[in-house]
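To fix ideas, we give here one paired sequence and structure record:
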Amino acid sequence: MRQAINARRFLQSLALLGLALLGQPAAAQQPADSATTAASEPEPCPYTATERDKCPNAVRVTVGFRRNVDDLQPGLEAMVRALPFTRIGWPAEIEISRYPVDQRFLALLDRGEGPSSAMDEQSLSFDNGGMTNMPGFNPSPMPFALANDPQLADRLAEALRSYVRVRALNLLVDGDVSGEEPPFAFCLEPQGQDCPASGNSEIGQVDPEIYWTIGLRNQSTQPRYFYVLAFDPDNRLRILLTPHDGDGGPLQPGALIAARNPYYANEGRTQFFILERTEPFDPRVLAPGPASHDLAFNCKAGLEPVLCSALSGTNILMPDVDTRQGDGQIIHQLTVTFEVEPAPAAGGGRPPPEGYAPWQAQIYSTQTYSREQIEADTKLGVNGKFLAQQTRYQLYHRCGGSLIAPNIVLTAAHCVANGAAVEGVKVLTTREVRLGTQDLRVPGDTYRIAAVVVHEGYRGGQQRDDLAVLRIVRKTGSKAQVPIVLPHQAPGLARIAPKAPLSVLGWGYTRVVERGERHEVTEDGPQFAQAMLQKADMEVFDTERCRKLRSYGDIYKTICAVSLSTRQEPGHAFSCRGDSGGPIIQERGRTIVQVGVVSGGVGCGAFENGQQNPSRFVDLRQYADWLEAAKRRVAQLSGAVERLAEPAAGARTRAP
């Protein structure tokens, strides 16, 4: 990890924008559009105003379009114009483009132009060339949505709102004092390790599965209140540290405060903003965030309008530099680039772009481990499952799956039937499904399982006909469902042939497991489910060669796959435990087609006699009729697990 500290200051006066004293009751602060606002005081233009663009010191973000958005541009223009904090014009601060790595996605390109209040609105398109080479462009544009995502308007709004948050907060971090020593030492250490006795932490490359401790030491001569905010590489805002991580009082000179909750660092550039204050925030300004351990600024409390305007992403307020007097608040910026050392992850993979797999499902257990069970497992040592070392998502993750129709999920039969922990209808009460997130630490929409159809040919402990279809019913969440395309729904899809490329997606184990070795613990130590969905690129292995390998004799309707022949160790690719039931995909232009389901293999990616043991996937091309019959049958069931045979030859059906 490279660490660069750039401390800047914004001295916020009590007169700035006519703000009321911190701690004054919210009711006493009149909104800008209120008829009762005192005429003798300037309008504060708070984030609660209904016409923020009319505030004299507020500006909109100017948006343009690359020509490669083609026929999407009219719809995108309408989405941009509907937002109160954006406008279409030139020069553009942000351009909307097809993602250069994958044209199915849309991305925002940052031209690095500052906000301006004198931009004429017009419909703008820019040519395709020089996307990542033009001066001012963000060299690593991030995709924010699939072009055909039914929630495209919401995802675009949130992506632009995130840009507003970062730009607005950076405007508050004003006055370059990078040559001065900041009044704090910043601590970022692996969880369980102490912060240094003096100075900032020294950190190398980051293990993507490590959690970190955030801390600050007061190096000034006066007591101060410190708050730490972070914008991760996806511009998501989190509050990492507040005085409440200590006793709630000011941090004394020389004293250290550490965040109570661990911090997970995403790969890429993270901006930390350290707020140094002589007085604490009013308790009403801080509120619980979407997760139980998170905090967020409560921008409905009527307090801190300038800061909340930035943090809520509602608009950019241009502070008047002539009024920056006083000693109420100083904001420092610290930028950290987290560099992750490449590692085999499914094995040999990397996280796909956010929103890449809206059809990806997780099947998790609703049965929880008791303290006694965890303690008993710990006593087993290397023969246990290391329950005490696992996070909640690792403890209860079981399998993957894919949404193949509204409220219909496809997975492996061994994930829901004839397993050691699940028999018959128990799956209906001991398993649930989650959709809508690729990060198991982030809440998604949750569903109960209402009915299951298992292929009649499946037998426990085997991999033949390893398919099951689930009917799910929403419990929480409201995201639109996006089913994946199956082979028989993609006319002209090429046959599976040796060397054909495909990819496996899953949250499963990432280390090589030798034949007969326990999946939970290898010679490199214990391993657990991944937080981020992994996408590993592989290629089809010749069927006849696969059949002749030890333990691979029965490969009925199976795809065997190994690492790409152009790829070398140590990053070879494979599927492993925890990936079961997940989708095997092929990319066909701007369409993703699911061609298989993760079923098993011999170990995970191990080499024997100079040959990688292939991963085994169910070949969905050979199950079109069963899949359509299973979808119809599971829709008719409730509270039941039922086996279903292949349709009779004379009763074949196709998807509409």
Residues 152-172 form the longest helix (21 residues). The helical segments are 73-81, 152-172, 305-312, 371-379, 392-396, 427-430, 543-547, 624-636. Residues 65 and 156 are 13 Å apart (CA to CA).
